[in-house]
Amino acid sequence: MSYTAANPEESTGRFAVPEECVGYEVLDPWYRRIGSVEELLVNEGGEPEYLRVRIGLLGLKSCLIPARTVEVDAARRILLLLR
């Protein structure tokens, strides 16, 4: 997984706690909204594995997205799917 921030010196390269990304907007590679992060699932080592994303008009459905396929922009609170 790669991470970006407005100021690279402030970027830690990962979230301090998994709950930090809850509520981030998830965008496709063309910046269209997919949904928002409901939960970050981590493996035994504490590394991000999957994102549970609320999708749909009312957010009643969810899907899992591999964490390695997103780029994080903490300054704007978005996750961008890579092509």
Structural account:
This protein has no helices and 7 strands. With 83 residues, the protein is mainly beta. The chain has one domain (2-81): SH3 type barrels (Roll).
Features:
83 residues; mainly beta; SH3 type barrels; seven-stranded mixed β-sheet; globular; disordered N terminus
Topology (SSEs and partners):
Blueprint (H helix, E strand, L loop, with lengths): L1 E3 L20 E3 L5 E10 L5 E8 L5 E6 L3 E4 L4 E4 L2
Parallel strand pairs: 1-6, 2-7
Antiparallel strand pairs: 2-3, 3-4, 4-5, 6-7
Summarize the model shown:
The chain has 83 residues and is mainly β.
The CATH class: Mainly Beta
Rg from Cα: 12 Å
Determine the mean pLDDT: 81
How would you classify the quaternary structure? single chain
- Work out the helicity level: under 10%
Report the biggest beta sheet as strand number plus sense, adding barrel if it closes. 7 strands, mixed
> Largest sheet, order of strands side by side?
1-6-7-2-3-4-5
Kindly name the structural category. mainly beta
Residue share in β-strands: over 45%
How many structural units, i.e. domains?
1
